[in-house]
Amino acid sequence: MLPTLTYLQFHALFVVPVVAGLALTATYRLGSRRDVLTGTAILAGLALIYTTPWDGALIRRGVWWYGDGTVLVRFWSIPLGEYLFFVLQTVLVGLWIARFRVDTDRPLATPLRTRLVGFGAALVVVLTGLALLRSDSGLYLGSLLAWSGPILAIQWAFGWHFLAKEWRTVGGATLAPALYLCSIDSIAIRLGVWTLSEQYTTGYAIPLLDLPIEEAVFFFLTTLFVVQGVVLYVWLVDRWK
């Protein structure tokens, strides 16, 4: 018996229409259209390059798997739909953050001590992840935190103080798409499009969504990466101009 949705049908129903709607109604308050789209495109490419090895390793380990008939083609053990998701999520969030404003008049010059604070905070995330990796149940969450640490280190060392001053924009632009992505992920899990291993997850879930905590952390962090990345890119380009 085939599942309700294939991975590509999942995109066609829940992801592509949202991306199209955001593109058709886009307003570029964050920066110029060119700067926002260029920053988003760069982040989409980096998402593919950086996420592929980690994602493939967890799939081969059996941290999650896909329902019968949900995957039409794979590359290096990763479904085509997964690669598309790396790009589509980045574009979705980039078009969403474009609607927000930031004050780019703040100078780029940052004391080394301030940069080290951001780097130190990211290091804590990595160390937390490594500690979780000591048990099977912490594999997904631990590897996720360790994987996210280098990205956070780059972004926070460069401009955590700027992001903190723009916390309303960063928070608002992160929470809405992350919540939507968590909601549709919960639907996909219930439909059997993909399934998470009980052995490699903590067993904790978000009550209202019945979503494993690992998935919620993943969508929050990856959305945050894009929001922070686009904001910092626009700030950097604006200061250079």
Automatic annotation (TrEMBL):
Entry keywords, A to Z: Carotenoid biosynthesis, Isomerase, Membrane, Transmembrane, Transmembrane helix
Taxonomic lineage from the root: Archaea, Methanobacteriati, Methanobacteriota, Stenosarchaea group, Halobacteria
BP GO annotations: carotenoid biosynthetic process
Protein name: Lycopene cyclase domain-containing protein
UniProt domain Lycopene cyclase: residue ranges: 15-94, 154-227
InterPro entries: Lycopene_cyclase_dom
Topological category with respect to the lipid bilayer: Multi-pass membrane protein
Predominant place of localization: membrane
